[in-house]
Please model this.
Amino acid sequence: MGFWEEEVIEAARQGNEELLRLALKWGGRMDAASLSGQKAAHFAAEGGHCECLRIMLEKGLQQRATDTRGWFTGHQAARNGHAACLSLLRAFGWDLDGADAGGKTAAHWAAISGSAECLRALLEAQLDPNALDQEGKTPLHWAAHEGKLECIRILLTWGADESLADFRGWAAGHEAAFAGHADCLDFLLEAGWNCQEADVLGNRAEDLARKQGRKICEDMLAIRRKALEERSALKNACLDPEKRGRARGC
Model:
């Protein structure tokens, strides 16, 4: 990598617009990569340096440039909470739905980081709220695992399916129970998630919460389970002619 390529990368990293223009004028290439595999656009998006990103876009920055992890520029912006950079990329006609080497889209990374603004921008750009990564997890799984309640709200509003299970059989509710995020778990339960669903090893969310010592989540799920069991018993009693007269609520 030549001197001016190094200057392009350093200017993008610092958000130095004057240096970036100078380095590009003197032949610095935008596609040169640092030792970590990141290109100038990745550094600009990571730091939220929108004007540097705009300069490169106006110079014909290639959309599908990735680093060694398979991250696009949009992944960096979403992971670091820079919604303005995402809006800029979209304004230049970029697709934001590419997946990295682990199958994660920018929406996955926005959910992981808890950037509600980025997540909303991506969903407005028609990214799939139910996209699966290589573990079978959706952005909703990751938002629940990380305890990002506002991201959960946004995802459900935009059509995320709280019942989808990953390759272990975990839905978002299992993730919230395992990690001990009681507020997220409560929201998913109120949204209609069935807490009685078991994973591939036969564990329900209540079992996971108990094993992890998540007492609040365990108690919340136990109360819900008992309510469902009582409701089921009452329904069965109402359907049985012999028990119908003795059952209350039929």
